[in-house]
Each structure stands twice: as structure tokens, then as C-alpha cells.
Amino acid sequence: MIVFDLDTFKFKRGWGAYGHKLTEISTLAADRDYTPGGPEPQEFKGHLTLNFSNDGLVYAADRAANRIIVTKKDGTYVKEIVVAPKTAGGSAGGVMFSPDKEQKILYVSDINNNTVWFLNRMDGALLGRLGSMGENGGQFFGLHMEATDSKGNLYTGEVFNGERVQRFLLVK
After folding, report:
1. How far is residue 30's CA from residue 41's CA, in Å, rounded to a whole number?
2. How many domains does the chain have?
3. Which of 64, 60, 42, 43 lies closest to 51, judged by CA?
4. Residue range of the domain that includes 95
5. Longest CA span, the chain
6. Which domain CATH number covers 19?
């Protein structure tokens, strides 16, 4: 991850998986190897999707390694949340937070399992899921990203043959 000043575009700082300093990031392919259900790679496996929580943490969804790495804004490693570890790469896509002030729940889009995972943000425990493979309402074909609005409604976007947006209303 690299941070630039928004006004000057001057480089400010950067880090890799587990808060590795830029000078410490390995270029060895073996440090990016991922085996479903096996140990996590020591570096980021693929592209990242980022989001920032209200308490100032950075959530980096490393899709191809089925995990979310949480750091502080200065790159200090906080924790790792593994998502569907036996998936053959691709279970941690977009990461979004529930709309409550504490953002108690993480919503994670999963392009391979075509589901939205609901995880406890503090410990990563699985709370539930939404969807399955298909082209009907409530099903997904290439679930790519998700978002929430201030009312707690969930929006999902699909790629591949899905190519649609679905809205799920929060029911209390």
C-alpha cells in the first residue's frame, strides 16, 4: 500500500502485508504462494481493495489470498482476518462496514463463492452470509463489490454474466 498527499501527490509512506516496510517486501514468488486451507502468504497475493473504519484502521482485502489484513494508517500491523480459507483464491473481495457508529459487522464480497460474508469486525467470526450462485434475485454471478448506505441497505455489484446491481433492504 502506498499513500500520497492528495494536494501535491508527494509520496508519504507505504507498507506491505503484515506492515512490512517497503524495503522489506519480498520479491520472491514463494512469499506470495497460496494454498487453500494452508498457511497465508507472507506478502500480498494480488490486488487489494481498501476501506477505512471509523476508528482509523485500514482494511486491505487481499482477494487472491482469502484474507483481510488490518493495519493502522501508519502501516502498523493489527490483525489478519481469513475469509473462506479453503476457496481456491478469491474469497475476500470488497470490504464494507455496517452503518452503526462502531461498525460491528464487516461485509465481504466473495466472487468465487458468490456470497456476501458477514463477519464480526473485532474477531473475524462468521456471523452469516447472503446469496449463492445463480442469476435470480438474491443470487450472484460474479459478485464483485458491495456498499451500504446510511440506512443500512446493502448494494451489490456483479461482473461476468451477472453485470447488475442488487439492493437488499435492512429489516429490523
Report:
1. 8
2. 1
3. 60
4. 2-168
5. 49
6. 2.120.10.30
Residue of 121, 45, 50 whose CA lies nearest to 85: 45
C-alpha cell at 162: 451477472
Q: What is the pLDDT of residues 105-151, one digit of tens each?
A: 999 999 999 999 999 999 999 999 999 999 999 999 999 999 999 89
Q: Give the whole-angstrom CA distance, residue 106 versus residue 57.
A: 13
d(CA 111, CA 168): 18
Euclidean distance between CA atoms 155 and 72, whole angstroms: 27
pLDDT, tens digit, 9 for 90 and up, residues 38-89: 889 999 998 899 999 999 999 999 999 999 999 999 999 999 999 999 998 7
What lies within 8 Å, CB to CB, of 103 at 6+ separation is: 53, 54, 55, 97, 121
Beta strands in 89-150 (DSSP E): 95-97, 105-110, 115-120, 126-130, 143-148
Rounded CA-CA distance 128/11 in Å is 40
